[in-house]
Design brief:
Layout (H helix, E strand, L loop, with lengths): L3 E6 L3 H11 L5 E7 L2 H11 L3 E5 L6 H11 L4 E6 L6 H7 L4 E4 L4 H25 L11 E6 L7 H16 L3 E5 L7 H4 L8 H6 L6 H5 L3 E2 L5 E3 L13 H14 L2 E5 L10 H4 L3 E6 L3 H16 L7 E8 L7 H8 L3 E6 L2 H10 L3 H4 L4 H13 L2 H7 L1
Parallel strand pairs: 1-2, 1-3, 3-4, 4-5, 6-10, 6-11, 7-9, 7-10, 11-12, 12-13
Antiparallel strand pairs: 8-9
Helix pairs in contact: 6-16
């Protein structure tokens, strides 16, 4: 295997020597140099195709700023920060500087070698996927429509609706559709679609400064239904490094690249994902014909009202509707003082089957009444003129 070319950028000569000794006998690592300034580092990077740079946090008084500069000039470079101690903001600063990892002094040889290897592999995988994808996103004159699917109560079918709405939009309109899982802690849209994520939202945040329409598409997972998927994080611990600004950039970039953006939200209000409310053309609030569920939606509507959220954007979706329900559609509308935009019929056996198989309901059961309900919902959401043009 090719050796990983490593450069040590640190102000303390003794520390640089320690790094060199630790890496001396590692057969798959080649130490190219030890320098103390970013100017010297840049020269070596230019002439030696460096793979990984170890940057001391005190370099030129701000190793994070040095890291950010190097990463902006050499985006295929894997950077590892060496820090004196782990503080609350350390990882956040590291991520936004372009670094792939942080090592805390005194550095243990095994951790050093592991960090170099993983940082290099991460960058190689990312570069390979971007090159293979080579996306050429179609530029559009207008931004895409955003449908945010939300509920403050679990078990109402929020993810199920988001997935099948996205697929029904793609099938009915023939347009470009992306599904975004913003349930950062417990999102399972990828699981429900039987796909294994190569990248998640955390990876995009890692490269947030380089994001454009083409670049972001290389992070998305294509699904056989025709939609693209941006999964939530596999590890909830990464969520603390994601903020509302990141989500805003991601959603607006997707809005410019796709005709429709469908967002699966967490089961409650969260400052981090607030941009999904702001950019929404329609906020689809899901409830079921149950007292607890309707009560939760009532509370959510009150909260949105207090926040001066535009009532015209809010649309109620009544899910799991059956003939024997004691609470009828009109009861829901009266209680919420809000019209129900769509009533989705209950089909428990087939819904569970589609989720277990990882096949969207509207594809697996194209002729069932619930699929027709989704098509009706799409027609209500989408401009009728657009559907006529397609015909």
């Amino acid at each position: 295997m090719d050796k990983i070319k490593v450069l040590v950028l640190d102000t303390v000569g003794e520390e640089r020597n320690k790094m060199a000794q630790m890496l001396l006998n590692v057969e798959y690592i080649a130490l190219i140099g030890e320098v103390e300034s970013s100017t010297e580092a840049a020269e070596l990077i230019e002439n030696n195709s460096i793979d990984v740079v170890l940057v001391g946090s005190e370099v030129e008084d701000d190793g994070y700023a040095v890291s950010e500069k190097l990463y902006s000039e050499y985006p295929e470079l894997a950077i590892v920060i060496m820090e004196e101690k782990l503080q609350e903001e350390t990882m956040h600063k590291a991520i936004f500087s372009g670094a792939k990892d942080v090592l805390i002094r005194p550095i243990v040889p095994a951790k050093l070698i592991d960090s170099i290897y993983k940082a290099n592999q991460h960058m190689k995988t990312k570069v390979l996927v971007h090159k293979e994808s080579a996306p050429k996103t179609r530029r559009r004159a207008a931004v895409g429509q955003v449908y945010t699917v939300f509920s403050t109560k679990g078990g109402v079918g929020r993810t199920f609706i988001a997935i099948n709405l996205a697929v029904a939009l793609a099938k009915t309109t023939g347009k470009r559709v992306v599904l975004v899982d913003l349930d950062l802690d417990f999102g399972n849209a990828a699981l429900a679609l039987n796909i294994v994520p190569k990248f998640t939202i955390a990876d995009i945040v890692d490269d947030i400064r380089n994001i454009d329409q083409d670049f972001i598409e290389s992070y998305l997972i294509p699904h056989e239904s025709g939609i693209k998927v941006l999964p939530a994080n596999a590890q909830p611990m990464m969520n603390e490094f994601i903020n509302a600004g990141d989500i805003d950039v991601i959603l607006k970039t997707l809005q410019n690249a796709f005709d429709y953006v469908v967002i699966d939200m967490p089961g409650g209000f969260s400052e981090t994902v607030n941009p999904a409310f702001a950019v929404a053309d329609k906020l689809l609030i899901v409830t079921t014909p149950e007292v607890a569920s309707v009560r939760n939606v009532k509370a959510a509507l009150i909260t949105l009202g207090e926040l001066n959220y535009p009532k015209s954007k809010i649309k109620v979706i009544l899910n799991k509707v059956a003939k024997g329900d004691r609470i009828k559609l009109k009861d829901v509308e009266t209680t919420l003082n809000q019209d129900v935009m769509a009533a989705l019929r209950a089909d428990y056996k087939e819904v569970i089957s589609s989720l277990n198989l990882g096949i969207p309901f509207v594809i697996k059961n194209s002729s069932r009444p619930l699929t027709k309900d989704f098509v009706t919902l799409v027609k209500k959401l989408v401009d009728n003129a657009e559907l006529k043009r397609r015909k």
